[in-house]
Amino acid sequence: MSKKVFVVLLAAVLTASYAQAQFTFGVRAGFNLTDFSGDGVEDSKMKPGFQIGVVGDLALSDNFSIQPGLLFATQGAKWSENESEGDYKVSYSESMNLNYLQIPINAQYKLDLGDMKLLLQAGPYFGYGVSGKYKWEESWNGNKESGDDKIEFGSDEEKHHFKALDLGLGFGAGLQFGNIQAGVGYNLGLANLAHSDNYKIKNNGLAITVTYLFGK
Fold first, then answer.
1. Which residues, other chains included, contact 139 with Cβ-Cβ below 8 Å and sequence gap of 6+?
2. Which helix (DSSP H) or strand (DSSP E) does residue 9 occupy?
């Protein structure tokens, strides 16, 4: 997906939402725990990160709404290894930090519980990789070395480390108190970020978010 197509998709989603009378605007921030999965991934661990951005709430009824959004979200994974033999000890760690613009489009069901509402939601998300960094650190018997490299996104395998387009499905639940929604969600990546079909690398992530909706 080119940047132009990505921008057109975002504009279409937001334009359709604003055209409706019951559209509400909001802001969102959250904590991410992300990881890789796939045939090209071994022994990776969850990496902490964050997300921040804007969302809309298009109420189709008292209990059902559509929530599009535009988020800046960090993805990636980390690895670590420790070895020792006698007095000789070695530790090695590395991490991939990937930054995305994400468009989640969730269908949200709201169950009235009196002073609050139970939220259940699911829907697709689309992401476009904008920047990234690979970091590593190695230490042995008091000595230490470290370094980092820039990660490039794009369709050219010789110039770029990962494909730019990411997409998947999101699932979540939460509670709403007045204008505030607090939730926990999981994104299941469906797109192979690797250029080769011989192995696969997919984004996955857990998120804890807080959303404030204006005018609710």
1. 90, 91, 92, 145
2. helix 3-18
Run of H or E residues at 60: none
Q: What's the pTM?
A: 0.83
Residue type, 111: L
In this structure, are residues 124 and 2 in contact, taking their beta carbons and an 8 Å threshold?
Answer: no
CATH fold for domain 3-77+99-129+160-213: Porin (2.40.160)
Residue 1, pLDDT score: 52
Contact 13, 66 (CB under 8 A): no
Averages of pLDDT over each 10 residues, the chain, 216 residues: 56 52 89 92 90 95 93 94 76 93 97 94 97 90 86 83 94 96 97 88 96 86
Among 177, 208, 171, 157, residue whose Cα is nearest residue 46? 208
Phi/psi of residue 54, nearest 5 degrees? -120, 150
Contact call for residues 10 and 103 (beta carbons, < 8 A): yes
Domain range annotation of the chain: 3-77+99-129+160-213
